[in-house]
Amino acid sequence: MRFFNRRIHKAVSDLDTVEISEQNGVRYLHLGNDTVQSAMRINQPHHLELAYTQAMMGFLLFTDAPPASTLLIGLGGGSLAKFIRHHFPLTYITAVEINAKVIQAAHQFFYLPVADARLNIVLADAAEFITTAPQYDSIMLDGFDAGFQVTSLASESFYSECRRALTSTGVLCVNLWASDPQFDAYLQRLSDVFDQQVICLPIEQRGNVIIFAFADKLRYQPLRKLQQRALALNASLNLPYSDLLAHIRNQSENEKIIP
Asked: With 0-12 CB in 10 A as exposed, 13-18 as middle and 19+ as buried, what is 96?
């Protein structure tokens, strides 16, 4: 999504210029150009405004319970951190962000709460942080800069460290850009590191592709069970899980997992 609206804030850092804009009741985060990195509907600060962030929560279709702990790599405006904190009061959240100006903007303009017993915000390079990280039930990787995917967050060694940092039933959720020249290489690395236990979820007309990579072996699940779970998640989280399930089923590589 690329456009620029009424600018309300600009902060220059050594990493990326952080800019905030608004249009029609929605506030946007930009890093170095007019590409939208994060968005928040001002009167619904806990809702996931962008389709790709909604899709990143699609891993719940394949888990029996919300994660007890989650690691967010790339904070942005804090949309996922706020959503998880609001809907899952027992989930412990760690968010790692390399740009201090992004953290400041998330607090000031996107209503991200201050750190407390349930929310840990770490200023660090995630490529270094992951090497000594404890284990999490889910890791959500959204590692973009002003260009494409941050290369240090898309290497085979980084994906391997992510797998090490997952519990035995954990899942890595990765946001990739379909037009990235390295997309096929990134997907192949994820497939290799996670022994082909991956599910792709393209976001129609958005360009994003969400990859779910599972530490445990994926098991066949009856379609009826998944549809029932999707309906329950639709109701409890106000996200289009039935649509997400339909998009996943359209991917031929998932036929052994979903009928």
From this structure: buried
Domain enclosing residue 225, as ranges: 48-253
**Residues 144-166 pLDDT 10s:** 765 678 899 999 999 999 999 99
Question: 185-221: per-residue pLDDT in tens?
Answer: 999 999 999 999 999 999 866 589 999 999 999 888 8
Q: Which two tokens stand for residue 223?
A: 């379609």
Consecutive H or E run containing 95: strand 92-97
**Could you confirm whether 142 is annotated as catalytic?**
yes
d(CA 48, CA 226): 22
Q: How many domains does the chain have?
A: 1
Query: CA separation (Å) from 22 to 5, 80, 103, 159?
Result: 6, 19, 18, 35
Please tell me which residue in 142, 145, 184, 216 is annotated as part of the active site: 142
Q: Is residue 29 part of a domain?
A: no
CATH of the domain at 84: 3.40.50.150
